[in-house]
Design goal:
This protein has 6 helices and 4 strands. With 162 residues, it is of the alpha+beta class. The chain has a 4-stranded mixed sheet, with helices on one face. The longest helix is centred in the N-terminal third of the chain and has 21 residues.
Length: 162
Amino acid sequence: MRPLANILKICYVLQSVNSLAVNSPAVKSKEMRVKTLLVLAALVFLYPADVVVTDARAAEPVAAELIMMEQPGCVWCKRWREEIGEAYPKTEEGRRAPIRFVDITEPWPDDLAEINRERLTPTFVLMSDGVEVARLRGYPGAHFFWPLLGEMLEKLPVSAKM
């Protein structure tokens, strides 16, 4: 487990505990809340973070692919290629879901028969083992693309390896 993931899990646990402590009628005084948080924080640091919080998304995802449907003359497809295209394969997202470009004006690939072809381009379809997991219609610009892609990737199923 990467150290950043452990830190994020610890923050999640502390936030949850703080929420419980603040809303608990048994822990009314500020001094008691602080003591409770300190004890619980000590417990979090005594145990590995993955024991304290089990998060299925922390496991390795199964094979994924990001399909980008495009067509000749699509200005937004061109803009995506200019703003994101070169960097995408070098990112963590690009390694998790390598991109595959599909021209909607060409014959439809046999392995994509189960997903609907779009008229609007670009359209991004996240696939996992041949099954559609999520879809993003259009390109909202670089500022919004990465967070939306992150939300899509969170929907990926996890492998049986833990």
